[in-house]
Every structure is written in structure tokens, then in C-alpha cells.
């Protein structure tokens, strides 16, 4: 059933926003692009749209039940001939099937590789049958800055981005980096990452805080997929310097290739007693609620969704000033940024934020306030407006 809600435009003009059947393609893992895509789908479903996730696994943030959410698994059968199962073909075929059978209005793919190329293929197949499906590609970061720029993928990435009906990037920085690195002939619209501030505004659980910091130590946190780009070794070095000055504990959430090195480094620096590796976690709200300071010294962040979620949870942030982070963090107000690799500066900033209770409190309050600028209620309508425009075209 199509439901239309009246919306008032300028000069009293009345328009209707109708619910849509939207396909969302993303990586279902803990990565920022998958998290953002899933949260977007959930928010759109709450607003009455029908959301069809097309992924090879249930997205990690897709928990619970919603009448408007549908999950379609991409099956990638193996065959003795294949050293590399052709995932892109399986994905394009799944897209065709879901679009055909669910009368989708549009397809929104998150992360260019290989989703934009598979969407192009699906769109061409359906065109032959007289079905026109608009494709929106959202660029998230490493699909452009790291993997996408690799010669192995670059021509396909550029082609499929240019073939999308609309392109969005999660920060102005990512938009510029995309234009600088690819022959993009189309307009890229910036729609920042978002966070549900109300959901992340949890009260700290005292018992949890006591277990982690029994003597009232400051709690620092880093959460990521522990890839090289996150510079987890910098997190450990910054913490050691903070820990030498202030009683403190470090929580490390997530898992990935650099985790082993991080554990070794903690042993080498003899700070294991004050560092806890929590692995992958679902209930980040409770962890953010007890966090005083979030550390994100990344080599690059197109936006830094993890920092935004931490801020919504009331944590101050010390990060690098790479990529889109200056679009998220206000220097000296909700946290501090320093040049990539400048461990001394980041440690000094962290100590400055954490040293006095009153000062820390003002940073934490400012962090939550800053996060409100990127609240779900401000950003999700931008996607809806984009969908409406694309549909009408
Ligand atoms: O942070 C990661 O490495 C995961 C990555 C992804 O592509 O899944 O996250 C990227 O997308 C997020 C959501 O748009 C951004 O907030 C992250 O900054 C971005 N990561 C990088 O640019 C390294």
C-alpha cells in the first residue's frame, strides 16, 4: 500500500511524500559503511518506507523485527572451477530478482566496490525488460581513498560512479578527494553521516564503570576494525603517555588485522593491566556512556562515524585532523585534533581534557551538543528528498 504524507513547502505549497520501496546494498559487517547503511534502512522503515536489504549476510546492526524491513541474502555458490566465486555477478542477479519481484522504486548502494558496478549491470538487465530502476551510490571512504584508487579497480569504480543516477559522499573532504582521484563528470552531493542522539544518550551503568575503573580512573576508548588506516599503535602510545600522568584505563573495542600487534605493544610497554580488549560489541551505547575520551588517530577518515557515535554518547574526542574529521569535531570545544602521527600532541590534548572534572564535563556536554547537528532527524530527510528527486526524474 502506498501511503502519502502531506509536507508544507515554502509559500504554503503543499506536496506529498509517499512511501517508497527501497533496495539497500551494503557490506553487512561492523565497518562504518555497513553500519550507516543499516541505520539508514531502519530509520526509513520507521518512517513507513519498505526497505529491502540485499547482502551476503544479515547486517550486524539489523537486529529485532520491523514489518517494513526485508532481508534478501546473496548466495554465492562455489564451483570447483572457481578459485574466486564471481560475487559481483551473484549480487547483480540478486538485485535483478529483488527489484523485479518487489517493485522497487530505487536502489541505494553503499560503498562503490563492487556494489556500484553490480548495480549498473542489474540496471542494464532490467532496462531490456522495460524496467527502469534509478541507482544511488554513496561513497564512504576507503572505496575511494584506499581500495578504489588501486589500478586494479579504478576504471570500474570511475565508470560505475559516473553511471549512477545520483552520487553522495559522506563529507566535503571525500567529495574533493573523489574528484581529485577519478575522472568524475557528475555532481557529488554531500550528505554527512548521522547518529540517533536519543538512542546514544544513555545513563552510565555505575556497576559497569566500577568494574572497569574501580578507583575512579578516567576511561579512554578506541573502537574500530583494527586496520592499518586506524593507527591503533598510536592509540596505545597516546594512552601510555596519559596513563603516566593520570590514573586511567583504556578500552579497545573491535577486531581486525592489527589487534595482535596492539596486544604485543601493550605487553612491551607494560600497560596490560590498564588495557582491556573487549572484542566486537553490539551494545556500544553502554560503553560510550562510561567513556570519558574517545581516541581516533586515523591516517584517514572520510567522516569518522565511530567518533560521532561516541560524542552522542557524551564522550570527548581526541583524533587526527585527517580527511573529514574537521567537519565533525570542533577544535578545543568537544575535543582536539592534531596531525597524523603526532602522538605527543594528542597525548597532551587528552591530558588537557581529562585532568580536571569541570573541564572534562564541559567537553563532554559540548560533544553531545555537536553530535546533535548530525542527528538522525536532520540527516535522514536529506536522503528522502534525494530519493524523491531521483524518482521524479
Ligand atoms: O572505518 C572503516 O574503515 C570502515 C569504513 C567502511 O567503509 O565501512 O568506514 C568509512 O565509512 C564510514 C561511514 O560513512 C565513515 O564514517 C568512516 O570515516 C570511513 N572510514 C574511513 O574513511 C577510513
| Mean pLDDT score | 94
Major sheet characteristics: 7 strands, parallel
Q: Remind me, CATH topology of the largest domain?
A: Rossmann fold
Radius of gyration: 22 Å
Number of helices: 15
Structure ligands: ligand GMT
Give the count of structural domains. Answer: 2
CATH architecture of the largest domain: 3-Layer(aba) Sandwich
What kind of oligomer do you see?
A: single chain
Topology:
Layout: E1 4-8, E2 14-18, E3 21-25, H1 32-46, E4 50-55, E5 69-73, H2 87-102, E6 106-110, H3 112-128, E7 135-139, H4 142-145, H5 154-163, E8 166-169, H6 172-181, E9 188-190, H7 197-200, H8 206-212, E10 218-223, H9 232-245, E11 248-253, H10 259-269, E12 275-279, H11 284-289, E13 293-296, H12 305-312, E14 316-320, E15 335-338, H13 343-354, H14 357-372, H15 376-392
Parallel strand pairs: 3-4, 3-6, 4-5, 6-7, 7-8, 8-9, 10-11, 10-13, 11-12, 13-14, 14-15
Antiparallel strand pairs: 1-2
Helix pairs in contact: 2-3, 3-5, 9-10, 9-13, 12-14
Ligand GMT is lined by residues 31-34, 36, 111, 140-142, 170, 193, 225, 227, 229, 300-305.
Textual characterization of the structure:
The protein is of the alpha/beta class and 393 residues long. It folds into two domains: 3-194 and 376-392, Rossmann fold; 197-372, Rossmann fold. Helices cover 42% and strands 19% of the residues. The strands form three sheets. Strands 5-4-3-6-7-8-9 form a seven-stranded parallel beta sheet, with helices on both faces. Helix 3 (112-128) links the parallel strand 6 and strand 7. Helix 2 (87-102) crosses helix 3 and helix 12 packs across helix 14 (357-372). The protein binds ligand GMT. Ligand GMT binds at residues 31-34, 36, 111, 140-142, 170, 193, 225, 227, 229, 300-305.
Amino acid at each position: 500500500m502506498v501511503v502519502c504524507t502531506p509536507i508544507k513547502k515554502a509559500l504554503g505549497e503543499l506536496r506529498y511524500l509517499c512511501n517508497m520501496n527501497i533496495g539497500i546494498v551494503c557490506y553487512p559487517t561492523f565497518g562504518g559503511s555497513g553500519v550507516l547503511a543499516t541505520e539508514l534502512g531502519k530509520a526509513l522503515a520507521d518512517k513507513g518506507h519498505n526497505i529491502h536489504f540485499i547482502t551476503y549476510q544479515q547486517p550486524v546492526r539489523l537486529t529485532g523485527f520491523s514489518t517494513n524491513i526485508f532481508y534478501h541474502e546473496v548466495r554465492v555458490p562455489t564451483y570447483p572451477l572457481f578459485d574466486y566465486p564471481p560475487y559481483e555477478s551473484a549480487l547483480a542477479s540478486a538485485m535483478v530478482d529483488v527489484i523485479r519481484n518487489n517493485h522497487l522504486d530505487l536502489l541505494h548502494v553503499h560503498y562503490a566496490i563492487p556494489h556500484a558496478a553490480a548495480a549498473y549491470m542489474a540496471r542494464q538487465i532490467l532496462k531490456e525488460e522495460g524496467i527502469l530502476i534509478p541507482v544511488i551510490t554513496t561513497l564512504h571512504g576507503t572505496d575511494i581513498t584506499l581500495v578504489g584508487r588501486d589500478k586494479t579497480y579504478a576504471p570500474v569504480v570511475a565508470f560505475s560512479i559516473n553511471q549512477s543516477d545520483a552520487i553522495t559522499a559522506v563529507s566535503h573532504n571525500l567529495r574533493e578527494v573523489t574528484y581529485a582521484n577519478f575522472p568524475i563528470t557528475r555532481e557529488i552531493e554531500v550528505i554527512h553521516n548521522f547518529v540517533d542522539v536519543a538512542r546514544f544518550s544513555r545513563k552510565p551503568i555505575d556497576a559497569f564503570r566500577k568494574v572497569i575503573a574501580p578507583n575512579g580512573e578516567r576511561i579512554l576508548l578506541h573502537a574500530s576494525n583494527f586496520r592499518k588506516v586506524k593507527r591503533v599503535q598510536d592509540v596505545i602510545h597516546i594512552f601510555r603517555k596519559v596513563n603516566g600522568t593520570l590514573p586511567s584505563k583504556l578500552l579497545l573495542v573491535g577486531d581486525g588485522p592489527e589487534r595482535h600487534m596492539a596486544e604485543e605493544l601493550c605487553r612491551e610497554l607494560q600497560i596490560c593491566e590498564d588495557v582491556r580488549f573487549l572484542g566486537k560489541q553490539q551494545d556500544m551505547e553502554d560503553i560510550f556512556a562510561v567513556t570519558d575520551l574517545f581516541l581516533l588517530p586515523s591516517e584517514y577518515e572520510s567522516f569518522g562515524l565511530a567518533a560521532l557515535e561516541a560524542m552522542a554518547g557524551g564522550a570527548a574526542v581526541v583524533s587526527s585532523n585527517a580527511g573529514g574529521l574537521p567537519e565533525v569535531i570542533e577544535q578545543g570545544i568537544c575535543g582536539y585534533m592534531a596531525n597524523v602521527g603526532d602522538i605527543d600532541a594528542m597525548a597532551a590534548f587528552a591530558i588537557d581534557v581529562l585532568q580536571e572534572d569541570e573541564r572534562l564535563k564541559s567537553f563532554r556536554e559540548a560533544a553531545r551538543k555537536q553530535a546533535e547537528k548530525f542527528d538522525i532527524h536532520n540527516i535522514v530527510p536529506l536522503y528522502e528528498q534525494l530519493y524523491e528527486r531521483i524518482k521524479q526524474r
